[in-house]
């Protein structure tokens, strides 16, 4: 009887551990180039696509708006993006990678609206989960 209970307990532990691994979602941004991560960031900010936000931003992410000195962390910024899910900005978007060396990347994204231009300076860092957006500074030149 004792052996049967041990076998059943071991089976339950194995099943629960396998199901916890199956429940984890694979990071679709894990093995992509930095340019793809920048494109995903632009989709989140200009088209309201939020599906990849939990994979997109680093845990210590910081957003700064130089026009009004607002600063937001990852939780606050992703909540903002979620509230604007599906909102499509009418702008022309482009980006360029300014520098990439090792596990760091700096990019400039330009969103040209009819009456103004928004420029985001995006810092990315690479870790075991791939490239992540770690900092964004928005300016309005």
Please give a structural write-up.
By secondary structure, this protein is an alpha+beta fold. It has a single domain (28-139), classed as Nuclear Transport Factor 2, Chain: A (Roll), CATH 3.10.450. The protein is 35% helix and 38% strand. The protein contains four helices and six strands. It has helices at 2-23, 34-46, 53-56, 74-83; strands at residues 57-65, 70-73, 92-101, 104-112, 117-127, 130-139. The chain has a six-stranded mixed sheet. β5 and β6 (130-139) form a beta hairpin. The longest helix has 22 residues, at 2-23. The chain is globular and about 40 Å long. The mean pLDDT is 88.
Strand order in space, largest sheet? 2-1-6-5-4-3
Query: Please, what is the average pLDDT?
Result: 88
The beta-strand count equals 6
C-alpha termini separation: 77 Å
What is the C-level CATH assignment? Alpha Beta
* Proportion of beta-strand residues: 35-45%
How is the secondary structure organized here?
Elements: H1 2-23, H2 34-46, H3 53-56, E1 57-65, E2 70-73, H4 74-83, E3 92-101, E4 104-112, E5 117-127, E6 130-139
Parallel strand pairs: 1-6
Antiparallel strand pairs: 1-2, 3-4, 4-5, 5-6
């Amino acid at each position: 009887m004792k052996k049967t209970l041990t076998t059943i307990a071991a089976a339950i532990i194995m099943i629960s551990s396998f199901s916890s691994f199956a429940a984890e979602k694979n990071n679709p941004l894990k093995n992509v180039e930095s340019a793809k991560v920048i494109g995903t960031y632009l989709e989140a900010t200009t088209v309201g696509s939020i599906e990849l936000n939990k994979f997109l931003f680093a845990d210590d992410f910081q957003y700064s708006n130089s026009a009004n000195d607002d600063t937001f962390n990852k939780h606050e910024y992703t909540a903002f993006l979620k509230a604007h899910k599906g909102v499509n900005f009418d702008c022309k978007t482009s980006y360029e990678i300014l520098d990439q060396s090792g596990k760091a990347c700096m990019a400039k994204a330009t969103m040209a609206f009819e009456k103004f231009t928004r420029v985001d300076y995006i810092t990315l860092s690479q870790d075991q989960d791939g490239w992540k957006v770690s900092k964004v500074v928005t300016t309005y030149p």
